[in-house]
Amino acid sequence: MSSPKHSLAAKTNLRRIREWIVLAGLMGCAIVSLIVTAAIIFVLVSESVTGLGGNPAFFQEVSLWSFLTDTTWAPQYGEGQFGILPLLAGTLWVTGIASLIGLPIGLTSAIYLSEYASPRTRSIIKPLLEILAGIPTVVYGYFALVFVTPLLVKPFAEYVFGIEANIFNAMSGGIVVGIMIIPMVTSLSEDVIRAVPRSLREGAYALGSTRFDVSTKIVIPAALSGILASFLLAISRALGETMAVLIAVGLQPKLTWNPFETMCTMTGNIVSMAGGDAATGSIEYRSIYAVALTLFVITLGMNICSQFILNRYREVYS
């Protein structure tokens, strides 16, 4: 018959083994994430900059200056023209329109859910936002073609500006992407707003402030770093959106100031080139990696900025 000491030691050893297994599993997941990230960077850089397997890299045949400054993207015609500006313009149009729609609506929704809504109302609205976030992006693209463009964008362009909007246009793509990022902005912003200590609100109410004053002058400034970080993460999400903008915006690279024209985003170009007739190893095929590397650098910069803002302006409460 085992003594209580031996029984306690056995339980302690079993607990340590379980903790070690959990620790090893968590560390393994973290290592896998690092390996996948490193592999992605290696592929993008090798195909774009350094070359791999004896094949020249994209930027060994196309100068970085012409890639960044040329105003025409036509890789499959003649010797090919590889100016990223038309793709960058389409991406920025969609991202800018999406930000103008998704960020204000998402923030005001977060303020309402955190400061104004009753628990019952919150329990109804939150699942609806989660459903909105779970809709496949391809559905948003066809929603833009069937509803947004004919019923909203075309009448708006005709009656306000006196111009005709194409069936594929950046305005429709920006609207649906803006709708897509609303749940992200709302969820992240509500979390940081609800994290503001209750004592700050109660102190403001004790001084006679209204609920609107408390929300705009106390809560929002206190949670500003987290809100800005959520904005940047949502913008990064809009930059990387593919299927919705591929269907709604079109595949015509064009450098234009008119958002009602057909354009092409960087993600849309990657999909079209990968599924097109570009031969593996050709300069047209390797342009996919150059565009992907550009998008990766932009998104990485946005994420670094969000982390910097979150760490630099974070309010710490005891």
Kindly describe this structure:
The chain starts with a helix and ends in a 6-residue tail after the last helix. It has 2 domains: 4-50; 69-312, MetI-like fold (Orthogonal Bundle). The chain contains 13 helices and 2 strands; from the N terminus they run αααββαααααααααα. Strands 1-2 form a two-stranded antiparallel sheet. Helices cover 75% and strands 1% of the residues. The radius of gyration is 25 Å and the shape is globular. With 318 residues, it is mainly alpha-helical. Helix 4 (85-116) packs antiparallel against helix 10 and helix 12 runs antiparallel to helix 13. The protein has helices at 4-50, 58-61, 64-69, 85-116, 119-134, 137-161, 170-194, 198-206, 211-222, 224-239, 243-249, 266-274, 283-312; strands at residues 73-74, 81-82. The longest helix has 47 residues, at 4-50.
